[in-house]
What does this fold into?
Amino acid sequence: MVQKLINISANQDINLKNLASNLGLSEDELIANILSKFLQENIVLNDPLEDFLAEAEIISQIHKLPKDYNFNRQEIYDSN
It folds into this structure.
């Protein structure tokens, strides 16, 4: 857990205390739950595969091989 210090208005503090009490939660638990729900609804997580493919596309545009280049796997082994 990471501890955070937040500033809220006196009115927010009263509402937070009342809501936490009514729900049987600590104020910390209520804030964490509300924040988790907000983040789940508002953060769009990217698909790692899509991120990888997008990055690969960018790299392929930057690093071009010569037009006459022909990959030969055996050359890799022969060069050692």
In short: The CA atoms of residues 17 and 48 lie 40 Å apart. The mean pLDDT is 88.
